[in-house]
Amino acid sequence: MINTRKDQDYWDPARKGFVTNYPNFPHWKRMDATQMEDRRPLNIYLHTPFCIQRCSYCYYKTINLRGSEKRERMDRYVDTLCREIELSSQRYNLKNRPVISIYFGGGTPSLLFEEQIERIGRTLYDNFTIGDTEFTMEAEPVTITESKAKTMIDLKVNRMSMGVQSFDDEIIKASHRLDDEKKVMRAIDLVKDTGVALNIDLMSGLAGETWDKWHHSVQRAIETGVDSVTVYKTELYSNTEY
User: What is the CATH number assigned to the segment(s) 38-233?
Assistant: First the structure.
């Protein structure tokens, strides 16, 4: 169960909902279940809701974990996620269908411990046909380490996406993030040294941003030499802390 503050548990009528299933459930028919057994390739999305802090612009439902409860709660979640992977494969006879992409998002997947990341990966390989697959994992500058990066590489993760958002320390601090430009650059260099493709995210319009600060972030992103940069426009909803 995900617990959020009362003022965060609110649906903004101006916000369009996410498409979590397509076609939408009302359009499903019982006969559609037989199509689950064909040979069309699969795309798999995995999710973890955990973060070490809630960024001030964040409108997702996340669980902030620190202290002694951290390992136990993540272990329980990983247990359930691995069981869901097994049941999904068995229930719909998906084991022999080729997987063309895997995306592990969050939350902060790189907050997980190495053994937990490895267990999730091994469960995937045991229950699905994974060959020449694009395997993306989201990472965060403070939580990515050499040992975690090595664990991901051992599981054939070949693309990482890192939420940088800004290279300006004042904006980073105002966003309630725990990194800074120096830590961001360390994390980028660490991932680049592994040889996997790296995307970094930037956000425009964050609190305190000026044209000069935005230009600095864009310029620094280009100078890193990462494979791609994704820019998101800041959108504020009622459950953000801004």
Answer: 3.20.20.70
Distance CA 141, CA 125 (A): 27
Residue 80 CB partners (closer than 8 Å, separation 6+): none
pLDDT score recorded for residue 37: 60
In this structure, are residues 162 and 188 in contact, taking their beta carbons and an 8 Å threshold?
A: yes
User: Can you list the positions of beta strands (E) in the chain?
Assistant: 42-48, 50-51, 63-64, 98-106, 129-139, 159-165, 197-204, 228-233
Q: Where are the domains of the chain?
A: 38-233
To the nearest 5 percent, what fractions of the chain are helix, strand and coil?
Answer: 40, 20, 40
- The predicted pLDDT at position 9 comes to 47
C-alpha 112/C-alpha 21 separation (Å) is 27
CA distance linking residue 24 with residue 92, whole number of Å:
19
The three-class DSSP label of residue 202 is strand
Mean pLDDT by runs of 10 across the 242 residues of the chain is 45 62 69 64 95 91 84 96 97 91 96 98 97 96 97 97 98 96 98 97 96 97 98 85 71
Query: 237: closest CA among 12, 55, 7?
Result: 12
